[in-house]
């Protein structure tokens, strides 16, 4: 068996042991199955959405080598939101990534903007691009069975669309320095000194690690370690740690993050990863440095990167602004300058909603099961509050109740199912 096949087998084995609950790759607008160059199997989106009859599949207007990005699903209905639903068990931590490639599909050269939701929570405002794929990534613990991802029109004639949707399970010990009531929204995930993107199969969780630009007076160095033990809480892939950036001398500081954050204050969650690139001679060589956030030490202890393994530094409970930066500075007794191999930066969400009351969700599911025309609505029935289903009215409670059903316009016929669990109904 060739070395490449061995590596693929080991990566797939790692995936099966580390992430067995969900590994869905949905090609929006696609059909059948497709295996890409990363050995990821993509499937068409028909089975993951309710209102497929009220959408259209279009080809990208630009030539694109990525098969998955060559089609998109456009939502041109008047419905408040359009959703994909993926089965995931309650309590599982997931990485969800939604990708958008406008590609001038409508020949208008007008990339649309629209809102993105997950499980009844506001996620972000999608700003699409004429030329580039944009993607949004969230990490959160599923509070109920399933993941829903919705797009919602916010501007006239700017129709939401989606090109790809991915859901990956993560181990429960990963990213757990933030309370499970909060989601993490990816700002950047960087592998320093690398030339190529790192993702599956090198990362069994299929996180996307993007090569970081090497700034002025910084040098790229490559690890001589054959194997790097990545047994730290967030399991960075070895491939993301094989290179690093460093300064030219111990007197020179390394500054990261300038211009990364918006002027509006936002809570952030940062992981930094450090792995020594060569086996040091302890009698003559030491590498020891401090990490500062706006001149405040991020840790009580100095960072001493281990050779053949990795040290992870978590930085949390801070609010960033446009002036926020991270500085790596060598200790006075260090003979070698600071280095860094990889970094992840997330925004921390507001507390996630618990969703619409489960009694009402159960009753609405019974109605949808009985009447096909009602199946076209998906996602949370009441949340986010401006985007309730068109035929329900909801209370303003933290856990909303459905107080009214408006079904007269659907010409329903046949017996009503049991929806007696909806005990907050006032109007029908």
Short description:
The chain has 428 residues and is mainly beta. It is built from two helices and 27 strands. It is elongated, with a radius of gyration of 24 Å.
Structural write-up:
The structure is a single chain. This protein has 428 residues and is mostly beta strands. It folds into 3 domains: 20-170, Jelly Rolls (Sandwich); 185-348, Jelly Rolls, CATH 2.60.120; 353-428, no CATH class. It has 2 helices and 27 strands. It has helices spanning 3-18, 358-370; strands at residues 23-27, 33-35, 41-44, 56-59, 71-74, 82-86, 93-100, 113-118, 121-127, 134-141, 147-153, 161-162, 164-170, 184-192, 210-212, 218-222, 243-247, 254-256, 266-274, 289-293, 296-297, 311-320, 326-330, 339-340, 342-348, 392-394, 402-405. The strands form 6 sheets. Strands 1, 2, 3, 7, 10, 13, 14, 15, 19, 22 and 25 form an 11-stranded mixed sheet that branches. A 4-stranded antiparallel sheet has the order 6-11-8-9, with no helix packed on it. It has a 4-stranded antiparallel sheet with strand order 18-23-20-21, with no helix packed on it. A hairpin with a 5-residue loop joins strand 2 and strand 3 (41-44). The longest helix is centred in the N-terminal third of the chain and has 16 residues, at 3-18. It is elongated. The termini are far apart. Residues 1-20 have low confidence and may be disordered. InterPro entries: Malectin-like_Carb-bd_dom (IPR024788). Its main location: membrane. It comes from Acer saccharum (Sugar maple). This is Malectin-like domain-containing protein. One of its GO terms (cellular component) is membrane.
């Amino acid at each position: 068996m060739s070395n490449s096949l061995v590596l693929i087998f080991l990566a797939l084995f790692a995936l099966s042991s580390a992430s067995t609950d969900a590994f869905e790759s949905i090609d929006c607008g696609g059909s059948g199955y497709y295996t890409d160059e990363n050995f990821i199997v993509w499937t068409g989106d028909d089975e993951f959405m309710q209102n497929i009859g009220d959408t259209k599949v279009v080809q990208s207007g630009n030539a694109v080598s990525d098969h998955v990005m060559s089609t998109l699903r456009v939502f041109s209905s008047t419905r408040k939101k359009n959703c994909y639903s993926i089965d995931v068990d309650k309590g599982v931590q997931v990485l969800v990534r939604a990708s958008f490639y406008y590609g001038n599909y409508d020949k208008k050269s007008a990339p649309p903007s629209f809102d993105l939701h997950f499980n009844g929570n506001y996620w972000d405002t999608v700003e699409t691009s004429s030329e580039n794929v944009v993607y949004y990534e969230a990490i959160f613990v599923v509070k109920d069975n399933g993941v829903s991802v919705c797009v919602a029109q916010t501007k006239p004639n700017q129709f939401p669309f989606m090109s790809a949707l991915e859901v990956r399970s993560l181990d429960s010990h990963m990213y757990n320095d933030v309370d499970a009531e909060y989601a993490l929204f990816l700002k950047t995930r960087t592998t320093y000194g690398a030339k190529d993107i790192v993702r599956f199969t090198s990362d069994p969780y299929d996180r996307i690690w993007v090569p970081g630009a090497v700034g002025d007076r910084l040098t790229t160095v490559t690890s001589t370690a054959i194997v790097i033990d990545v047994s730290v809480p967030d399991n960075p892939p070895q491939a993301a740690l094989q290179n690093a950036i460093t300064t030219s001398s111990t007197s020179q500081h390394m500054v990261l993050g300038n211009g990364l954050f918006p002027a509006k204050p936002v809570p952030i969650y940062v992981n930094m990863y450090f792995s020594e690139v060569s086996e040091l001679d302890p009698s003559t060589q030491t590498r020891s440095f401090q990490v500062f956030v706006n001149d405040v030490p991020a840790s009580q202890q100095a960072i001493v990167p281990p050779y053949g393994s990795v040290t992870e530094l978590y930085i949390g409970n801070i609010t960033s602004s446009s002036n926020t930066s991270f500085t790596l500075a060598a200790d006075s007794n260090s003979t070698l300058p600071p280095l860094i191999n990889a970094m992840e930066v997330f925004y921390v969400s507001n507390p996630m909603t618990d969703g619409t009351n489960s009694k009402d969700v159960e009753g609405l599911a019974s109605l949808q099961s009985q009447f096909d025309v009602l199946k076209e609505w998906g996602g949370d029935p009441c949340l986010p509050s401006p985007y309730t289903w068109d035929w329900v009215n909801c209370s303003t409670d933290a856990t909303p109740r459905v107080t009214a059903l408006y079904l007269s316009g659907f010409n329903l016929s046949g017996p009503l199912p049991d929806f007696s669990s909806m005990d907050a109904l006032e109007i029908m």
